[in-house]
Design a protein that fits this description.
The complex is a heterodimer of chains A (318) and B (241). Chain A is an alpha+beta fold and 318 residues long. Chain A has two domains: 2-173, no CATH class; 180-291, Beta Barrel (Cyclophilin). Chain A is 16% helix and 28% strand. Chain A is built from four helices and 22 strands. In chain A, a hairpin with a 2-residue loop joins strand 6 and strand 7 (85-86). Chain A is globular. Chain B has two domains: 4-92, Gyrase A, domain 2 (2-Layer Sandwich); 103-236, Cyclophilin-like (Cyclophilin), CATH 2.40.100.10. Helix content of chain B is 23%, strand content 27%. Chain B is built from five helices and 13 strands. Chain B has helices spanning 37-51, 79-92, 115-122, 126-135, 228-236, and strands at residues 18-22, 26-30, 58-63, 67-72, 103-108, 137-143, 150-153, 168-171, 175-179, 182-185, 190-192, 195-199, 220-225. In chain B, the strands form four sheets. A four-stranded antiparallel sheet of chain B has the order 1-2-4-3, with helices on one face. In chain B, strand 9 and strand 10 (182-185) form a beta hairpin. Classes of the chains: A alpha+beta (318), B alpha+beta (241). Chains A and B meet through strand 12, strand 17, strand 21 and helix 4 of A and strand 1, strand 3 and strand 4 of B.
Chain lengths: 318, 241
């Protein structure tokens, strides 16, 4: 007993923080596109950061609770409701047996996370519960959730069922309306025409409709290399901005292939991957250059904030 | 193409091995600009050292044709700390003994839908194509593209054939193909433009195994022609892990 999927939604998958250690065999990492929203959701519930949750995309699913459970919804505001009433995000919320969780208009952002206290009863595969749909590996039967799927909880909820009156400080999470994405120069940055090197940091890039968990395709003025040269395939990662010969950049996302042969003009700073993951088709972004040190410092600051949050939340459940 | 090796970050590595960051969690060691057996052997030696490396903050590594990328957790280590720690490892491969390669056999039933085309393209008989393909010895330079997919080197140029102009929407798992100078085996069903010359009953990527990939970068591979009956028999046995 746990949940039953009544309507699947646009693309609803089980994700944790990803599957590491197998990229050398060509196995993608996958995992939550917005890993920060997932971490926050898990922290709210007192779960380990890596606990698997349900990632919803733009049009969320409808889920029937056969059993009560404490949940938290984080990430994009996809208008979650419980039995027709608005459900507050960013806080623990008890859903009683027989209730229906659904989603309405996507208001802000692209991906919401439904986190469950104690997690979902899904086997780990190669160290992770993340879904890699293209390879039909992991998650719930290797595929996005479908109508009729029934997933059990790993733990019964035994805590209080009344409303919780605390939420996570919204300032901990990035403002999803932000259009500036911070990047570092990529290994082949210097190989691009000086015009392209300049316009990369001044032009506006539009997310095309052809964007998914594997990659975001951007449209812009074409980015040209000084000389077209075949590159040997090498490792690429989440946030690598590749430029194929047509000059339109592709940003690799969570389900990216482990290696690629296109020049990488820039690499999105890890701190801004969650913000990027919340962009939708037709959204516009600009890129801002930061140094490796700055990127590391931003991550350290975030880590310190998360640590404080963890101890604050631990007190709430005492 | 501008050389990223020039950004030294204050530290240079021995044996003219270059290095550069891939974002804020990747460090790339770059060995050369061209594919060679020597470079592959060097990368294998580094990979073997990394397998038992106790450096904190290492997430994983990905070997490729001329690079090996090390992913790290910047909360636990830094780019420069990693470089310093890599110095002795990189220095020790200087006088390398020949890397001992594992040899693996992949049985193929040469019944591919494009075998006739490949033969005709080169003015060979189908039997000659099979003979040339199965007599070669191949090296797994790297894995990538999809889980378990080997980038193999060593194919005889007499059977090198351009990709199909219109890719197939679905190539079955186990299909063996040729694309230009390359040959390879598809571990999972995927669209693709390779000329398909045969099928292997082996599962190249099996998630139920502790090591899910049949092949590893650095392996030697031989293709063994089999009959239809053998193909069915091996397929029914599950896989040859």
């Amino acid at each position: 007993m746990g949940i039953k999927v009544v309507k699947a939604g646009m693309l609803t998958t089980v994700q944790d923080l990803g599957r590491y250690g197998l990229q050398r065999y060509g196995m993608p990492v996958s995992g939550a596109m917005d890993s920060y929203a997932l971490r926050l959701g898990n922290r709210i519930l007192g779960n380990p950061d890596n606990e698997a949750a349900i990632e919803c995309t733009l049009l969320g699913p409808t889920i029937y609770f056969e059993q009560g459970q404490l949940i938290a919804i984080t990430g994009a505001d996809l208008s979650p409701t419980i039995d027709g009433n608005p459900l507050p995000m960013w806080r623990p919320f008890f859903i009683g047996a027989g209730s229906l969780l659904s989603f309405g208009q996507p208001k802000l952002g692209c991906r919401a996370y439904i986190c469950f206290q104690g997690g979902l009863d899904i086997p780990e595969l190669m160290g992770s519960r993340s879904t890699y749909s293209k390879g039909q590996i992991g998650g719930w039967q290797g595929r996005p959730l479908q109508e009729g799927d029934k997933i059990a909880f790993r733990r019964y909820y035994v805590g209080k069922e009344e409303a919780f009156h605390w939420a996570v400080d919204p300032n901990l999470y990035p403002d999803l309306a932000t259009t500036v994405i911070r990047v570092m120069e990529g290994p082949q940055f210097a190989g691009f025409e000086s015009e392209a090197q300049k316009s990369f940091f001044s032009d506006v890039f539009t997310m095309s409709n052809n964007s998914d968990r594997m990659g975001y395709r951007l449209t812009s003025k074409p980015l040209r290399l000084k000389e077209q040269k075949e590159l040997l395939s090498t490792a690429v990662t989440f946030g690598s901005i590749q430029v194929p010969p047509d000059g339109n950049a592709i940003i690799l996302m969570a389900d990216h292939p482990t290696t690629g042969g296109y020049p990488v003009i820039a690499q999105v700073a890890t701190i801004d991957l969650p913000l990027l993951a919340q962009k939708r088709p037709n959204d516009r972004v600009r890129f801002e250059r930061i140094s490796l040190d700055e990127a590391h410092n931003l991550l350290k600051r975030q880590h310190a904030q998360l640590k404080k949050l963890k101890s604050a939340i631990a007190l709430k459940y005492e | 193409m501008g050389s990223p090796h020039e950004r030294s970050f204050g530290i240079t590595l021995p044996n003219s091995i270059g290095h550069y960051p891939l974002g804020d969690q990747g460090l790339v060691l770059s060995f050369a600009d061209t594919i060679s057996l020597d470079v592959n052997a060097q990368i294998r030696q580094i990979a073997t050292c990394l397998d038992s490396w106790l450096q904190p903050g290492i997430i994983e590594y990905v070997p490729a044709y001329t690079t090996i990328t090390i992913y790290y957790d910047p909360l636990l280590t830094s780019y420069n700390d990693l470089l310093s720690a890599l110095q002795p490892i990189v220095r020790d491969i200087a006088e390398n003994q020949e890397y001992k390669r594992v040899k693996k056999e992949i049985p193929i039933y040469y019944n591919g839908e494009d075998l006739a085309y490949v033969a005709q393209y080169h003015g060979l008989s189908e039997q000659e194509v099979v003979r040339i393909h199965s007599e070669g010895e191949y090296l797994v330079y790297m894995l990538g593209f999809v889980p378990g997919f080997p980038y193999l080197g060593g194919m005889d140029s007499r059977i090198a054939t351009p990709r199909k102009e219109v890719p197939r929407l679905k190539i079955e798992a186990g299909a063996v193909g040729i694309a230009g100078q390359q040959t390879g085996v598809y571990p999972i069903a995927t669209p693709g433009g390779w000329q398909i010359i045969g099928h292997t009953p082996l599962q190249l990527f099996d998630i139920t195994q502790e090591n899910p990939s049949l092949l590893e970068a650095g392996d030697r591979v031989a293709f063994i022609p089999i009959t239809y009956d053998e193909f069915v028999q091996l397929k029914n046995q599950g896989n040859g892990h």
